[in-house]
Amino acid sequence: MSYYVYILYSEVQDKYYIGSTQDVTERLVRHNSGKEKYTSKYIPWNLVLSLEKETRSEAYQLEIKIKILTEKSF
User: Fold this and answer.
1) Domains along the sequence of the chain with CATH
2) What is the pLDDT of residues 26-50, one digit of tens each?
């Protein structure tokens, strides 16, 4: 089963969120329904990027790399 790294953007608050999941569509729904504590403050979210990886470990490692690289930008 594939895993995905995704980047969301809140235009209202000019904020980005980076995460990983097996189901990007379901995660976006959860973020926009207020079920995720951190992201509920910045609804609505738009999907900016989704990258597919073969394993959960690969997806998580990429998520961390993106967060480190963009830490000062976001």
Assistant:
1) 3-70 (3.40.1440.10)
2) 999 999 999 999 999 999 999 999 9
Contact, 8 vs 47, CB < 8 A?
yes
Residues forming a β-bridge with 46: 9
Enumerate the β-bridge partners of residue 65.
Answer: none
Check pLDDT > 80 for residue 73.
no
Ranges assigned E (strand) in the chain: 3-10, 15-21, 46-53
Please give the model's pTM, rounded to 2 decimal places.
0.90
Q: Are strands 46-53 and 3-10 parallel, antiparallel or unpaired?
A: antiparallel
Angle subtended at Cα 27 by Cα 61 and Cα 21, rounded to the nearest 5 degrees: 25
What tokens does 41 get?
A: 């403050």
**For 49, phi and psi rounded to 5 degrees?**
-155, 145
